[in-house]
Amino acid sequence: MKILYYDCFAGISGDMNLGALIDLGVDAAYLKSELKKLNIEGFHLDVKIDQRKGISGTKADVVIENQENEKHRHLRHVEEIVNGSSLPEQVKSNALKIFDLIAVAEAKIHNISKEKVHFHEVGALDSIADIVGAAICLDYLKVDKVMSAPIQLGGGTVKCAHGIMPVPAPATAEIVKNIPIKTGLVNHEATTPTGAAILVATVDEFSDKLDFPIVKTGYGIGNRDSEVPNVLRVYLCEDTQPTKDVNSEEALVLESNIDDMNPEHYDFLLEKLFLEGASDAWLKPVLMKKSRPAVTLSVLCKEEIAAKLKEMIFKHSTSLGIRQYKVRKDMLRREEYDVKTKYGRVRIKQSYFNGNLVRTKPEYEDCKKLAEKHQITISKIENEVTKIISNQ
Q1: Structural element, H or E, at residue 80
Q2: Is the pTM of this model over 0.70?
């Protein structure tokens, strides 16, 4: 599996992204020829080798040939340009997804509909080229997955169409909601709205752990020359492990050691955690200092619900502190269907790996309800289900 990994230690902009992907292996001549399919005049792509703080890479600049004739555009104008081109459908789809993210962000900031957003930066030719170019490069690389480290946003202030704004700019802050970020490495805007939207629209997983062999590294050179190298680093990785039917995602584990709680109350707490959306929760006996027996409560969850689950733990347990850490979940593809037995319907769960069925299991809760209804053992229900499955 080919993986494109963004290491945004110094942020990302549209031109840095183009430079990095060209440096990684995208044919610059191919990119230029594909951009011509937009059928708009007034710009060209300038590609050259440059360096920052001794790091050599590719600098890609969209040069506007006549600034005076450049006009602002609304979202529908951009959509007409992209949809009217002869670019591949996947390129069009990815490009419009990026444009839409920025339009939605600007609309929320200005309290208007996205159709009424008057693009100041995104409607300009250079941003159209950056965004459509990003989609062209991604299509050229033919990767199976796109990953990214947390995005460095920078600090200080930035001058934009509406005046001096704090970093991150309002549009950037809106776009990166629920995305892992870092701030303060530099005292300027490290990530632009265009750069942020490119990542949010195309990245499948944000993780600071890179567990795959690196095949190639590319550097995109930015316009600044500050103490921190103004470059975007990207990796092309190859995961040689079989991954068919395996879905991966990032999650959080919340943990707390508890030594002074009535054990009967754990069942109530676990029920609350599952109702709030915990993926899993479990208890583990441990020995704390002075050989005190205790229990470690562990909860697996998505990052967006972590705050709510912490509230449940503090409210319904005697915990005084919770630690958390990120994990990667690898999950087998699962399917469900019903079988009709003489006792009633039972859901069947099946899991697959590398195209092969590896496990079939009747849903416990269904078997339990039927066993209670007919006053028989759960084993009898399960045996009946197994017999039906075997004859299918």
Answers
A1: helix 75-83
A2: no
